[in-house]
Design goal:
Blueprint (H helix, E strand, L loop, with lengths): L4 H26 L1 H13 L6 H34 L7 H39 L5 H27 L4 H14 L1 H20 L1 H51 L4 H8 L8 H11 L4
Helix pairs in contact: 1-3, 1-8, 2-3, 3-4, 3-5, 3-8, 4-5, 5-6, 6-10, 7-8, 8-9, 8-10
InterPro entries: DUF624
Keywords: Membrane, Transmembrane, Transmembrane helix
Pfam family, one: DUF624
Length: 288
């Protein structure tokens, strides 16, 4: 039975609420070991706890993140990818755990890489800002790198969910994409910060909507960027094909010798930019 009018709108709204809440709860359950240490870290951050307590919570988060947080988030992106691409009627439960199983190894190994980078950069940032006042500029640089690395995480999860690609290529393109597309970087960062702020004000949203909402927004941003790069690549391919056809015509109908014509129309190739390399890598790889 299909509802129309106001009832239809209410039904569709409730359906999306259930989808977001269901996928978010699955994410909370699968990443609960990491979330446990995260909550303990906030508790230990209050007065009355020692630095050793905080350090133990940090170690717990670092150890648990690759095994729980990263696979759970990759599975969540598998679900929201379906929604963004117009497949809203898929089973949340089946899609989530299919993505969890298929992407567990890649997301776990990527989790080790990202966790190690985060730890190194955070320690450098803390040391520069607290121990060496004359080197605080380096601390600010490390903070910028941390923000870029944080945003590249969303590209990392989106690529795992969207592409059949080797892990090293996923990590490389995730980081490069965050650098060559600064507008997308800032929009994703601002949107995530806004949702996190709302989630801290209303804790119930964290349990039911925060993670799935952030994942949907991040993949929506990524997919829009992907479609734009795909369109640009197709236009560039058509333009290159037209140039080759014109060059062939000139070689055939020209009065000069073929060698002289080839020298005349030959244009030295410009070195490809970082943006072109990322675009080529993303558009040539097979989608899931």
């Amino acid at each position: 039975m299909e509802f129309r009018g106001v009832m239809g709108g209410i039904y569709r709204l409730s359906e999306w609420i259930m989808r977001l809440a269901g996928s978010n709860l699955l994410w909370v359950i699968c990443s609960s070991p990491f979330l446990f240490f995260l909550v303990m870290r906030f508790i230990f951050g209050q007065s009355g706890f020692t630095a050793n307590d905080i350090l133990q919570a940090n170690w717990g988060m670092g150890i648990m993140a690759p095994f729980t947080l990263f696979p759970a988030t990759a599975a969540l992106f598998t679900v929201v990818r379906k929604w963004v691409m117009g497949e809203g009627d898929v089973s949340v439960f089946k899609t989530y755990f299919r993505g969890y199983k298929e992407n567990y190894k890649q997301s776990m190994l990527g989790g080790f890489f990202y966790t190690l980078l985060f730890v190194i950069m955070y320690v450098d940032y803390t040391v520069y800002m607290t121990q060496f006042p004359n080197l605080q500029l380096l601390g600010i640089v490390m903070l910028i790198f941390l923000l870029v690395l944080f945003v590249s995480l969303f590209n990392f999860f989106a690529m795992i969910a969207h592409y059949h690609m080797k892990l090293k290529d996923i990590v490389k393109n995730a980081i490069l994409l965050s650098i060559v597309r600064p507008f997308r970087l800032f929009s994703t960062l601002l949107g995530t910060v806004a949702l996190l702020f709302i989630g801290t004000k209303y804790p119930v949203l964290f349990v039911f909507f925060l993670a799935s909402g952030i994942a949907w927004f991040a993949f929506f941003n990524f997919y829009g960027m992907f479609l734009k790069m795909q369109e640009q690549s197709e236009k560039q391919a058509l333009a290159d094909e037209e140039k080759e056809l014109k060059a062939d015509e000139q070689l055939v109908i020209g009065d000069q010798s073929p060698v002289e014509q080839a020298k005349q129309i030959n244009v030295e190739k410009q070195p490809t930019s970082m943006n072109d390399n990322v675009k080529k890598s993303l558009t040539k790889n097979k989608e899931r």
